[in-house]
Amino acid sequence: MAKKEEIADVIKALGIKKDTVYNTALTPLMNAAYNGQKEVVELLIANGADVNAKSVGGNNEGSTALMFAAQAGQKEVVELLIAKGADVNARSTDGETPLMYAVQCAGVFHPDVFGVRSYAKNLAIQKATMKVLIANGADVNARDNKGKTAADWAPGADIKEMLRNPKVPAHKKPMKLR
């Protein structure tokens, strides 16, 4: 793994600006979060990147770095972003939340550094990510612009049950689904 100083030198040499939205519609922080590049995420935040900046255009318009990390099942990055002030109930342009992003990707094959994750491995990774979001106050009852909750996106009964009966600390407990 590269040292933080090396990463900083590369970012500086490339002229990457911390909150610039590039032709992918994403900031460097969003890209690093999606790809699980925790050291890069730490470096960008330490240099002032906005953890709640929203993407512009594309299929995920209005999405945050936390949404991209949740979508990709990057649990450690999700924890870091939350610790640095990312809004666990932020809304995309479609009204979707980080929890919805995590749930939507629980039932799919997902690329990772070593190729394609199996369905079972991806499901376990996404469940762990969902638990982090819920434990940090994600609203399981939030509805997107089409009226769907995270449970409506759930690929199976086990995830729906987890969303209906979240086990979180009392001080951060979301309301149960109706």
What does this protein look like?
- The chain has helices at 4-14, 28-34, 38-46, 65-71, 75-83, 98-104, 119-135, 150-153, 157-164; strands at residues 111-112, 115-116.
- With 178 residues, the protein is mainly α.
- It has one domain (4-169): Serine Threonine Protein Phosphatase 5, Tetratricopeptide repeat (Alpha Horseshoe), CATH 1.25.40.
- Helix content is 44%, strand content 2%.
- Helix 2 (28-34) runs parallel beside helix 4 (65-71) and helix 4 (65-71) packs parallel to helix 6 (98-104).
- The longest helix is centred in the C-terminal third of the chain and has 17 residues, at 119-135.
- A hairpin with a 2-residue loop joins strand 1 and strand 2.
Question: What's a concise summary of this model?
Answer:
By secondary structure, the protein is mainly α. 44% of the residues lie in helices and 2% in strands.
Category from helices, strands and their pairing: mainly alpha
What does the radius of gyration come to? 16 Å
Run of helices and strands: HHHHHHEEHHH
Cα end-to-end separation = 46 Å
**Sheet with most strands:** 2 strands, antiparallel
* Strand order in the sheet with the most strands: 1-2
Beta-strand percentage range: under 5%
Q: Classify the helix fraction into a percent range.
A: 40-55%
Q: What is the CATH class name?
A: Mainly Alpha
- Low-pLDDT residue intervals, each spanning 5 or more residues: none
> What's the rounded overall pLDDT mean?
82
How many helical elements? 9
**What is the strand tally?**
2
CATH fold descriptor:
Serine Threonine Protein Phosphatase 5, Tetratricopeptide repeat
